[in-house]
Each structure stands twice: as C-alpha cells, then as structure tokens.
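Submission sheet (multi-component)
Chains listed below:
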Amino acid sequence: MMTNPWEQTLSALELELDPAIISTWFKKTNLYETSEDKLIIACPDAYSKNVIQSRYADKIKDILQELYKKKMDIDFIVQPEKIDEPISGPLFDEPPVIKQHVPINDNQYDTPTHLAISPIHNALNDAFTLDNYIVGVNNRVVHAAAMSVVENPGMIYNPLFIYGTTGVGKTHLLHAIGNEIQKRNPNFRVLYSSTEEFVNDLITHIRQRKEMKNFRDKYRQSDVLLIDDVQFLAKKDSSQEEFYHTFNALYQANKQIVIASDREPTQITQLADRLVSRFRGGLMVQISPPDYETRLAIIEVKSKEQKLNLSQSVIEYLAQQPTENIREIHGMILKLKSFAISHNQVLNLATVRSILDPNGESKVQKRRITPEVIIDTVTKYFETSLKDLCGKKRTKDVVIPRQMTMFLLRNELGLNLTDIGELLGGRDHTTVIHGYNKIKNSIEKENNLILRSHLKALRQQLFA
Amino acid sequence: MKVDILREKLYRASLLAGKVITTKSNLPILSNIALIANENGELILIASDLEVSVRLTLNAKVTEPGKITVPARKFIEYLASLNLEKVSLEVDQKQIEVISGDTRAKFVTMPIDEFPVLPETVSLEKKLLIERDRFKDAIKQVVFAAARNDAHPVLSGVLFEFEGSNKMNMVSTDSFRLSYRQLQVDTNIKDPLIIPARALTEIEQFISEASNFTEDVPSDVILSLSEGDNQLFFKYANIEVIARLLEAEFPNYKRVIPEEFSSTVNVNRLEFIQAIKRTSIFAAREGQAIKLEFSASNGEIKSSAQSVDVGSHSSVVRADIEGKDMTLGFNSKFILEGLESFKDDVIRIEIKDNTAPVKLSGAKNPDYIHIVMPMSLNSEG
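Outcome: structure written.
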C-alpha cells in the first residue's frame, strides 16, 4: 500500500505543472482523510481550494486512477495553517535574574556579610586575554575594534564581525573580549558559544522536545554573545532561522554580538541574505596572518607562558618556519617543551632544528630561499630589474627596492654586509648598512605603512 | 469588453487596488489587476496577494461586458500619465486597448481563468460595525506597533478582542512596544480575531480615499467573517477587502501592561517630541538609545544622546513629575512613534524603574494606551 497518495500525486503534478503554480497553490496542502474510494485534501485557504478544485481536480483524478488502478473521488476542505510559536521579546520575557547568594559563614561576627554575585557559566577560557593577545600590523584594526567593544559593549560596533583564515587568533580574541567585558562588568551575562554548540543545543532541544524557552533564554538573555565559527551555519536553515531571531533579539536590545568566521559573510555558502546583511550591518574586520615580527612576538610570549627559555636565534628560527598559523606555532612550542622536559636539555638552535625537522627537510630549505630568490622576488614585485638594482640609479623607484633587498638579504638569510654589497653590484658595506637601517627605521620607528605593506607582501611571496 | 469611464476614477481605484499586490509571489498573474465589466454598468477591479485581496466596484458605461487581467504597475503608471477626462477600454483578442482621445495604448494581458477566485461573501452572519472615523484613528494607533519583520508572524497582526457586544479592544505589539485601543462597536462576534496589520493599513487608506471614486461614503464600516472564520471581509461603499486571518494565539498582553509605578510625568506632548527628535539626530546608529532623565525636583526632562560619529546633544523640557527621579534609555524611534500616536496636548508617562515597561497615556483620554520598553543604558551612555 502506498505511504501517502497525496504526496505521490503532488510529485506527479510537479512533472506537469509550472513550479510557480505548485509553490503557490499546492505547497501547503495536506492529506486530510482517505477512505476506500475518496481522498479529502486540506487546503490552507479558500483561494487554493477554489483554484485546485476548479482547474486541477480532473488532472488529479487521472493521477489517482493510475495510482490506485481504480476511480477515486476527491474533495477539498479549507484548513487554515495554525501559527504556533512562543512569543519572546523584551516585553514578554522575564527580566534576567541575577542570582545572588549570601555565603554561609559560621563566624558571622568576624567577616562582614556581603552579597556575592554568583558567576554565570559563560564558557570563557580565561587563558585567552587581551593582555596576551599580540598586536601586530595584521590585527591592529581588529584589536582597536575589540577595545571599543570592550569599552562600550553594544554601543559602537554591533555586531563586530571578525574573519580570517584558520589559526590567526579569532577564537583567542573572542575569549579575550568576553573575559575583559566580564572583568569590567561582573554583572553582565557573557556567553561564548561555538556555532556547532549552538546548533547542537538547538537540535537537542527540538529532538527531546524540551522547552524552547530554555534554549532561547540561554542565548537571548546574554548581554554579550560571542559566536565562533559562524561559517558552520552554512546550509543549516532552521539553525539560521533561530540564530536570526537570537541575533535580532540581542541587537534590538543593544546587546553586544561578536562573531568570528573563517570568511566574509557573503562568502559563506547558503547563508540567508537577511543574516548576511545583518552580519555586515556592524563592523567587519579581517585578521590577516601574523607577519614575521608579530610571529616573533607571539613565539616570545607563548614560550614564556610555557616557561620555556628560548634564545633569540631559536625564536627567529621558529618565526621563519613557513607557517602563519598560530596554532601550529603553538604546537611547535609545545613540542619543544615536551622535549626540553623529557631530555632535560637546553634548547639551542641545532637541537630545535633536529626536533622540528628531524629529516633535515625543513620547508624553509625545501623552498630554498636563496639570495637569487629574494632578488628575483623583489624585482618582480617592484617591477624593476636586476640591472637597475645593481646599477647606479638613485631614483626613488630603484632605491627602495634596492634597500628592501638589502634588508631582506640580511634579515631573512643573515648574509653579511659585504656579501650583500657584492650581490648588489659591488657596493660598499657602509652603503648596505645605511640601506638596511633606512628600511628598518622606517618600519619600526616611523611606522611607514607603505613600506610595511611592501615588506609584508614580499615576505608572503617568499614564504608562500 | 468595451467600457467608458472617467480617467481619474479608474486611476485612483487601480492605484488603491495595486497596493495589495506584493512581489512575494512568483505567480505572474498575481501582479495583474483583474478587470470585469458587467451588464449592470459596473467595472470591477480585483487584486490579490492571497493574503489580502481587494475588489472595487466602479460605475462605468459598459457597452460590451467582458473579463481580462492587466499588469498592474504599467497600467497604473500609464493611467497616471494621461490627461484627458475620459478613457475607453477595449479588449481585442488578447490585448486591451486604452484609448483616451487620440492617445492609444495596447497592453499585453493574461486570461482571467488563471486569476484566483476570491472567497464567497454570501450569507455572512458574524458582523462587526464600527464608526468610520473612530476606526481610522484606532487603526493608526495600533498598526505601527505591530511587528514588521517576519520574526513573529503572530505579532504582524492586530488583535481584535471583544467585551460583550459593544466594546472592542485592538492590541498590537512587536514585543518592544504595545498599543492598546478600546472602542465602541456593535457586534455579534465573540471570539478574538487576529487581523494582519497590513490589511488594516490598506483598509484605513481605502476609507480615506473612498470619496475619490464614489459619491456615497457611509459613516459606518462593516467587517464580517467568512464561514469557518478564517477570512475577514471588509465592506465600505463600493470597496471590499478580504483578508486572511492569522490562526494563532495572541500573547497574553494584559500581563505586560504595568500597573505599579514609582513616577508619574505629565509633559507637553509636542515639546517633548521636538526634544526627542533633536536628540535622536545624535543617536547615530539605528536603534541606539537616547537617554531621558526625569527630575522631579527640577520639574524637567533632560533628553540627551552622544555618538562617536556625530557628537552630543541635550535638551530640557519642563514637566510635571511626581515620584522618584529616573534615568531611562529609549530607542528614539519607538518613543517618538509612541508619542506621535496620541492626539492629546499633554501626555502622561508612568514609570516603575529603568527595566520595566513604561506606560504612555493621554492625560484625558483613557481609551488608548501605549507601552514601550526602555533600553539598557551603558554607564558611559
């Protein structure tokens, strides 16, 4: 026996009729009742009932005859769609209750009783703070945005949408924002949740037929909601729906929302337009992978956190590793630490090399960054030539690439000044040190953004 | 089909009918207006988006009855561009010709067979009679507070709730604010109805515009329910609106209307509106709170806002305040729309605290109240 004759009929109709007709008139119809020789179909309103009855009844009867191998009668009734949804929103929600409890104290004369506000479970990892978040060129903007959010939650950038590839510190920043806001506003409900958690939570509530109110309260009553990896909402329609309402509820109540994603909202496949536009409604900032200097700083801080003493040369070696993923850098440090503990050995550059690159096949070496590679990269990048680089021209369009080459040869390959001079058309070592310092100072002391971006791009090309 | 009709009348009617057409449907026929000319000398215009439908009956000189549908937008645009007093409509094969003096246009049409058939309006027993102007006012006071987005379908409707056969409450809320209007009616309907706010907005316009294409404008409006109670019929002069009722449970609004207050403020409504309008310029981001400080001892309300992008502002309005001093944050749009929905010179504002709903009422008029939720203000705000 067929499972649902009406559904089968509809599939047959879909083959014959315009999709617009199906979606307008048939979409919300249901099988109401069946008997030996008759089907009763429920239509959501009188319009669809009238249309189906007058225009498509004969066609439907034909299809049914084929299905049942006999003549079937069909009838239609109007059965309006019932909207059944719990209403929430500021007027209808109970105000968030801040639970207070009085600590039980036997010796009530000694200690003054005070009201302590019980910490709300916020899922924040307190290891991630703004203090140990290293700010470099790659994340200066996002750090500034995070600071404004911390100082004025919900008031300035809402939502704050942070995106960047994996391992650039998005999760760290989310936790750090949460921790800092919580520190400054102990009464705030700060909630960190990965999108996966949000989705699972929703599914559990739906499956186990739990009160949706609990779910909604959890998310909608927070003062600060930090949502990680929002790209996982892709293709999850009902989660998107729920998230949309959560977002609106919080946004309209001026609660801060911070969202992290590995790509821009528009790049998330099958994300509802209304969510995309909401995500884009606040401030969108990108975290780029950390550049060399930032990697240095990160390694320094991370190794200190692990109580691992690394020499400057080791730190530089680690920063030169061809990864921009902080998680991988962190992994390297942990690897070194476990080695240091188990072998009780001081980590010098040679040991570190052998640990991280036991077969001597460092990716750095694989890429073979040679002086020629650097010169080649620079000339291509600045659209100049080796001849000009080695020549006598002193125009700006040659001088900067030339000095940049000096800087890179010294910094990335550790060549000595004389060798660098030789490579660049037999220049004096004092010329080289002048060129090197010029770039170094412009970047470090004068914070020359143009040079910085040149350097960053060049490094990316070298290490990519 | 062959019809002669006054251009202005046809244009006004088409324009109004066209308002119910939405871009929501992907069925092309729903962006058309149906034209039906009958032997009784009537030209009937029908438009529908399957939630709200309208049928306008105009007097016309019908030489040859007929039925056709025309694309609404272009048809209306074209009628607006004509300047002679009369137009003739003639259907030839599959086209309709619109002739006005020497100006002629032919529109591509669609056959009426594909147009939705409106629900029957015969033998309607459940009826609601409301005085026209009072109904218009009441609609204006409630529709703006209904939810506009699709987040809560129920809240996009207005509750009609009956107390006996002479009293009706109209309630709407988007969960941030709530409007409550009580009015005199004459009805035999007992169960509450939820009517889409959009349909009421159209109805309000139809009532206002009716005199443009009919001579007979009654002083009462009649609403009735279809068999099965799921469609609302509105009939006024030669206009009919059919709206699908929302089948849902309206939230318990009564528990939201506050009853205990710690401060009562009486303030000149227009002065207060002006102050808030000025302040809202400085609440740069949509939905950013403005700050209202109610000082009982100084007898004033200070309204202020600041934003990094614009700057800062504060205005002071004299007010009669009894009770505690209060500082509240508001969404300026909400508090403005709330205040603007009154007609009274003096408005009463009743406040419990900065997290509880605030009640607005006309100092003399008890039949309309508006509730608005304050927003949390940042300590710096």
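Remark: Chain B has a mean pLDDT of 90.
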